[in-house]
Design brief:
heterodimer, A: 107 residues, mainly alpha, Non-ribosomal Peptide Synthetase Peptidyl Carrier Protein, Chain A, globular, B: 373 residues, alpha+beta, Alpha-Beta Plaits, Elongation Factor Tu (Ef-tu), domain 3, 3 domains, six-stranded mixed β-sheet, six-stranded antiparallel beta barrel, 9 helices, 19 strands, 33% strand
Chain lengths: 107, 373
């Protein structure tokens, strides 16, 4: 992986990560600052110690913020902040490809 | 070398032996596939009788622990457990502990290897309290711990202690009796992503309890496991092994243990240094990696971006679930991001590709079942 590609990937991930942390803190009223949440913190059990009601709040927050839809089958990705970021990254790439495909067809 | 009471059982089951803490020999293993599968699909029985167990009593015990632990001790109710840290004034990790709050006392549980450092640290700090206001008692000789871990582990306390133990929440404990005979403290905590129940029992009842658990679990396919298999089970969940993954100068923020700290607490030993690091940013971070096939790695293999050294692997092993080698690495924080590819050095100075990935690496059947309610 080239340095430029690394830089670009980090910048994209940082942006999504910060937005996810903001959703967690604001939606769940967590008494934490963004730099007090580690990316691999488990959401349930040890870690942030959230419950299923909190999970639904996160789902709604992520759907609104990133304009993506989350199904019941997707819930397994809600393991940690990082796995949510992986999921969003993948969904956004899918959307980008879809819109590029549509544009090509239109042309 | 002293022998643990279960020594002969470990020999019978061809489990290798490991020297724990102050020299007792306990069951170890190379992390066999059979043991791994027992935990991920059924139940594994572990002899944890070497773990550190300390009782703290006295009218200033809460204040004492609040000062030393990074977690929110005051918020704990009876029967609750927190996973927290003891740090020194420089904000470096001394030990990762489980703290249990009982009716009139607290217990600290931790790894055998940490017994001396924890005991000395507590003793040193208890001296500033008036005599008798903070009392410490080493329970390591008088009490022992057996653990059942696995997707079906819940069946053991249900059948041996009470049907009601099904309601024992994660990070909770209660007093009970094994088959109305052996007093036990039944604790529910662990790092593997599976159900885990620990039976704290009087030393003299260890062998009897071991047999009862083994007999009860036969139907569910319980097998004896050595401590070695815990390494990979924890690695898959990115549960830090403090004896291997935490170095002398590692801080909680480098190890990603933010969640063990109650940041809103007024004071605790190491707070100033931890907050300073939080504002400035950490120099390196512990991150999970997966490795592509290749030659074996050097010990603490260096990680490279082009020819620049940017970190090192602290711990790696083969994940039977993912069918690939995984590990934990300390990487310079500028590059400690998920989704990147670097290279690690092998024993013959070749390079081997690695990827930085999110943790936990997968969701266990136990967690799926718990989520489905």
């Amino acid at each position: 992986m080239e340095r430029e590609e690394i830089k670009e990937k980090i910048a994209k991930r940082k942006d999504i990560l910060e937005r996810v942390k903001k959703i967690l803190i604001e939606r769940l009223s967590l008494p934490l600052e963004p730099n007090e949440i580690t990316e691999d913190s488990a959401l349930f059990g040890l870690g942030l110690g959230l419950d299923s009601v909190d999970a639904l709040e996160i789902v709604v927050g992520v759907e609104q913020e990133f304009d993506i839809s989350i199904t019941d089958e997707d819930m397994q990705v809600f393991r940690s902040v990082n796995t949510i970021v992986d999921f969003i990254t993948e969904k956004m790439e899918e959307k980008k490809k879809e819109s590029e495909h549509k544009e090509e067809n239109h042309e | 070398m002293s022998k643990n009471i279960l020594y002969n059982h470990h020999i019978d089951s061809e489990t290798n032996l490991k020297i724990c803490g102050e020299g007792e020999m306990h069951g170890e293993s190379t992390g066999s596939k059979e043991e791994y599968q027992a935990v991920r699909e059924r139940i594994g029985l572990f002899d944890l009788s070497c773990i550190t167990m300390i009782k703290i009593t006295g009218e200033n015990s809460l204040e004492f622990l609040e000062e030393l632990c990074t977690g929110n001790v005051s918020a704990m109710s009876e029967g609750k457990i927190i996973n927290t840290l003891l740090c020194n004034e420089d904000g470096k990790i001394i030990a990762i502990i489980w703290l249990l709050r009982d009716e009139e006392c607290f217990f600290i549980h931790s790894d055998a290897e940490k017994k001396k450092v924890i005991w000395d640290w507590l003793n040193q700090h208890s001296k500033k309290y008036q005599e008798g206001k903070v009392k410490l008692e080493d329970l390591c000789e008088s009490f022992k711990c057996l653990s059942v871990i696995g997707t079906k582990a819940i069946e053991i306390p249900k059948r041996l202690v009470s049907e009601d133990t099904i309601g024992l929440p994660y990070l909770g404990f209660e007093h009970g009796k094994i088959e109305d005979e052996i007093d036990c403290l039944l604790c529910r905590y662990g790092y593997t992503g599976e159900y885990e129940y620990r039976f704290i029992i009087p030393h003299e009842s260890l062998e009897k309890a071991w047999h009862k658990i083994e007999e009860t679990g036969k139907e569910e396919g319980i097998i004896r496991c050595g401590l070695g298999v815990l390494d990979i089970l924890m690695l898959e969940m990115k549960s830090v092994n403090q004896n291997r993954d935490i170095l002398e100068d590692t801080t909680p923020l480098q190890a990603g243990l933010h969640w063990m700290i109650y940041f809103r607490k007024e004071a605790f030993v190491g707070k100033e240094a931890i907050f300073e690091e939080k504002e400035k940013g950490v120099s390196s971070k512990l991150i999970t990696i997966t490795l592509e096939d290749g030659k074996p790695l050097k010990e603490n293999s260096q990680i490279f971006l082009d020819s620049e050294k940017i970190g090192f692997i602290i711990h790696s092993g083969y994940s039977p679930t993912l069918k690939k080698e995984i590990g934990l690495a300390y990487i310079e924080s500028a590059y400690a991001w998920v989704g990147l590819e670097f290279e690690a050095e092998t024993i013959i100075d070749e390079k081997r590709k690695l990827k930085t990935v999110s943790a936990p690496l997968f969701i266990t059947k136990t967690v799926i079942a718990a989520q489905e309610g």
